[in-house]
């Protein structure tokens, strides 16, 4: 596994790696680390190598690109040295960025097969993160990088069906790509007891703190609700990212400290533990070019934990979910978000309906049911290496 990510927080990377280890494979993960973490550690049987530290505080394009390029060269050297010691059959590279796939050049030359996993579609991610334009030179260059990267890989995994259609149309033949959603691992995300009302109605968002995630809308919505005569409620935001400072300032400016708590990023197992006491999950993404089609693993993890979900009516979420599975609100509309929160706090019947819908969906859409598709891909590639 080769990924510009924090291993302990990246559910998608961990699902692949730990599933392979459970069936008897040997897996290394070359990833990022935080200050104070050890450089090498075994996590659930996976050998985790943290080759570069990162703080999520990039203030501009140049700084963000510099860190990506630095990781590219360090990871290329690391994986080459490691391959010479113990030949890899398959190297699974996780994007962002797409060009990280070329760090595998030496091992690939000596027979390793390469998977490129598109977590986030990079050109659209770029214009969302930096508020750029599809007509910009950078966007067009990223389209070229996407096409060349997909051509280089032996197989491409895409994180949802809408992006599959887009990438097949513009950069990769359908014969060499497949779709694997961010399915939850039910060995971790599984409610062990029946949901029951809590003294304080607790809502939660766990994930990265980026602008496209729409957390400022949650703050505006809660601000409009705090004076209403509602049962006691609270919002827990779990994660880190570039919007953290702006969110903290907004919470302080609107005197919402009693209603909203910002908690740093935690490992996947800790997220599951937190969700045991949550009454409502909130996924408030904006409907911009990127987020409108970005599938969120948070929704499925909420469902697996028997937590009803309130989600913006983005194109991707309306593609996969129906009204009996999730509660929709109008994307980008803090007023509608506030009304839906108010209604759900006061409607245990609707919450029960959403839990039932979530349970039905997750019964067929979980990692236990879908992991075999990934195993078959890895085995096919390794047998050809």
Produce a short descriptive summary.
The chain has 385 residues and is α/β, with parallel strands linked by helices. The chain is built from 14 helices and 14 strands.
Account of the 3D structure:
There is one protein chain. The protein has 14 helices and 14 strands. The longest helix is centred in the N-terminal third of the chain and has 25 residues, at 61-85. By secondary structure, the protein is an alpha/beta fold. It has helices at residues 11-22, 61-85, 105-109, 122-129, 137-152, 161-170, 215-225, 244-253, 268-275, 297-304, 315-320, 334-345, 348-364, 367-384, and strands at 2-6, 28-33, 40-43, 46-53, 90-95, 113-118, 155-158, 177-179, 201-206, 233-238, 260-263, 280-283, 309-312, 327-329.
Assembly state of the chains shown: single chain
Mean pLDDT over the full residue set? 94
The number of distinct β-strands equals: 14
Sheet bearing the most strands, described?
Answer: 8 strands, mixed
* Helix run count: 14
Shape: globular
In spatial order, strands of the major sheet run 3-4-2-1-5-6-7-8
> What structural class do you assign from the helix and strand content?
alpha/beta
State the end-to-end distance.
Answer: 17 Å
Q: Radius of gyration from the CA trace?
A: 21 Å
Specify the helix fraction band: 40-55%
In percent terms, what proportion of residues is strand? Answer: 15-25%
- In the predicted model, the low-confidence regions spanning at least 5 consecutive residues are none
Element pattern in H and E = EHEEEHEHEHHEHEEHEHEHEHEHEHHH
């Amino acid at each position: 596994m080769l990924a510009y990510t924090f291993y302990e927080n990246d559910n998608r990377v961990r699902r692949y790696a730990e599933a392979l280890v459970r069936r008897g494979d040997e897996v290394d993960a070359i990833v990022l680390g935080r200050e104070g973490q050890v450089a090498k550690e075994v996590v659930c049987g996976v050998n985790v190598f943290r080759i570069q530290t990162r703080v999520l505080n990039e203030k501009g394009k140049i700084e963000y690109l510099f860190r990506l390029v630095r990781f590219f060269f360090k990871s290329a050297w690391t994986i080459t040295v490691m391959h010479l010691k113990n030949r890899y059959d398959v190297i699974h590279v996780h994007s962002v960025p797409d060009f990280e796939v070329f760090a595998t050049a030496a091992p690939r030359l000596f027979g390793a097969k390469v998977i490129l996993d598109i977590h986030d579609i990079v050109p659209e991610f770029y214009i969302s993160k930096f508020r750029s334009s599809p007509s910009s030179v950078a966007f067009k260059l990223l389209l070229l990088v996407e096409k060349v990267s997909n051509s280089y890989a032996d197989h491409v995994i895409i994180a949802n069906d809408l992006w599959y259609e887009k990438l097949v149309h513009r950069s990769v033949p359908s014969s060499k790509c497949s779709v694997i959603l961010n399915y939850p691992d039910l060995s971790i995300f599984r409610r062990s007891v029946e949901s029951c009302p809590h003294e304080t109605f607790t809502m939660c968002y766990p994930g990265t703190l980026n602008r496209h995630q729409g957390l400022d809308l949650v703050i505006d919505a809660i601000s409009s609700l705090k004076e209403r005569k509602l049962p006691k409620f609270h919002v827990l935001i779990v994660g880190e990212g570039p919007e953290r400072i702006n969110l903290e300032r907004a919470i302080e400016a609107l005197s919402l400290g009693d209603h909203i708590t910002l908690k740093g990023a935690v490992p996947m197992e800790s997220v599951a533990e937190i969700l045991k006491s949550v009454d409502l999950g909130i996924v408030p993404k904006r409907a911009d070019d990127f987020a409108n089609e970005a599938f969120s693993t948070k929704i499925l993890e909420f469902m697996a934990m028997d937590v009803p979900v309130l989600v913006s009516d983005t194109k991707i979420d309306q593609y996969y979910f129906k009204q009996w599975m999730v509660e929709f609100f109008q994307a980008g509309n803090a007023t509608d978000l506030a009304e839906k929160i108010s209604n759900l706090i006061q409607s245990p019947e609707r919450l029960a309906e959403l839990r039932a819908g979530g349970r039905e969906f997750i019964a067929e859409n979980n990692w236990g049911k879908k992991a075999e598709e990934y195993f078959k891909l890895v085995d096919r590639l390794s047998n050809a290496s």
